[in-house]
Specification:
Cytochrome Bc1 Complex, Chain D, domain 2, about 5% strand, two-stranded antiparallel ribbon, mainly alpha, about 35% helix, globular, 2 domains, about 400 residues
């Protein structure tokens, strides 16, 4: 009893508040899901219930990492926790901001040590439906495998975990009372749950929960909202044979690499859009040469994945290297059938790139038509997703 009384009342209250906040967050997530008891009645894992838009199929989830509300909540904390980087300065959420659909607004990403990544941070909205996860790696088909790249990759350094600091970083979480509870709730059958395998599983689970499907365009399709005349014209151009945007962005997720629970044939198209043609050779700048970096096959030069256009208005700048600053610049680029760089080390006419996709040709669009397509693209913003508290940084004062 003397030991208990020696603890500062303020400290005791702060610790209790920390536990209560964590439990409240888990219970809030669990409210709309189905509970299934574990052997320990004090620990309850709640099977995740998808609340999907009408046009969205059930997502594919790997059997060895099922969705639970507790794992989503743990993953949310880990996603935003700077202690997961080697130097304690950067989190996943540093390069993936919710208000920007989980990208960062920078031309290219910057790692925890200040090293620049050669590529632009991709948004994470509906990442659960992506067949491949990164810009140009056909082999990275799971969020769990991809998570190893920012955590342990050395070229470039992102989170900067390595053999010299991995144990110390893990200890940060092993010694934290709140994480002890979160891991126990998320992995109740694992007696030593705080490990890198479970960290990766939890973050992947949180990312799978990032569903976006309530834009004004979605509401229009459900007869719950209207589009302006300009937006309607843009929609018709986007899905019509004149602009032909739908060839690469025609799925419910507005891209052409889609996998879900019912997928039978998995397709992984990558495209050279004529962004570069250095010296007329077809080359792209190293180390941003697309699938070619891995395959070494000439036909793979400059091939990158077509990103989903959901929330595209808030994910500037665009393309794999962030080299197109605005939606208007993107429309000009595609209407021209590629980009002609007239001077500098990357000079060359991308419109004539020998490896360019046959889908990329000059499109006869006037300025009004371009403006109409941009107006339509802006209807793809899902404000509810951008401000959903269940996806927000839990370490900010306003979030549980």
């Amino acid at each position: 009893m003397r030991v208990i009384l020696s603890i500062s009342p303020n400290y005791f209250l702060s610790v209790m508040n920390k536990y209560l906040v964590t439990i409240f967050a888990v219970l809030s997530l669990s409210a709309c899901n189905t509970g299934t008891s574990t052997e320990d009645p004090a620990l309850t894992t709640s099977t995740w219930s998808w609340h999907l838009p009408a046009s969205f199929p059930t997502p594919f989830v790997p059997a060895d990492n099922p969705m639970t509300t507790q794992k989503v909540e743990l993953g949310r904390h880990l996603f935003y926790d700077v202690r997961l980087s080697g130097n304690g300065l950067q989190a996943c959420g540093t390069c993936h901001l919710q208000e920007k659909a989980f990208t960062d607004g920078l031309t290219v990403a910057k790692g925890s040590t200040g090293e620049l990544h050669p590529r632009n941070s991709q948004h994470l909205a509906n990442v659960v439906y992506n067949t491949t996860i990164t810009w140009a790696n056909p082999a990275l088909t799971s969020l769990e495998k991809q998570m190893e790249v920012p955590m342990f990759g050395e070229n470039p350094i992102e989170l900067g975990l390595n053999d010299n600091n991995k144990a110390a970083v893990l200890q940060r979480f092993q010694q934290d009372n709140q994480y002890q509870l979160l891991f126990k709730l998320a992995f109740p059958q694992d007696p030593q749950a705080i490990n890198y395998t479970n960290i990766i599983k939890a973050i992947a689970t949180f990312q799978r929960a990032l569903i976006s499907g309530n834009s004004r365009y979605d509401q229009f399709n459900q007869n719950k909202a209207t589009l302006s005349e300009s937006e309607l014209r843009g929609k018709n151009l986007f899905f019509g044979e004149k602009a032909e945007c739908f060839h690469c962005h025609g799925s419910f997720n507005l891209n052409d690499q889609v996998r879900h629970a019912g997928t039978r044939v998995i397709e992984t198209p990558f495209h050279n859009t004529g962004l570069f043609n250095i010296g007329g050779t077809g080359d792209f700048p190293f180390p941003n040469r697309g699938v070619f970096e891995l395959s070494g096959q000439p036909q793979d030069m400059g091939k990158f994945r077509a990103s989903s256009l959901r929330n595209v208005a808030v994910t500037a700048p665009y393309m794999h290297d962030g080299s197109l600053p605005t939606l208007e610049a993107v429309l000009d680029f595609y209407a021209a059938g590629g980009r002609n760089i007239v001077e500098g080390v990357n000079a060359g006419d991308g419109r004539n790139n020998p490896f360019k996709s046959e889908l990329i040709t000059r499109i006869d669009l006037n300025e009004q038509e371009k403006a109409d397509i941009v107006a339509f693209l802006k209807t793809l913003t899902d404000d509810e997703f951008l401000h959903n508290p269940q996806f927000a940084n839990p370490f900010l004062p306003q979030n549980p």
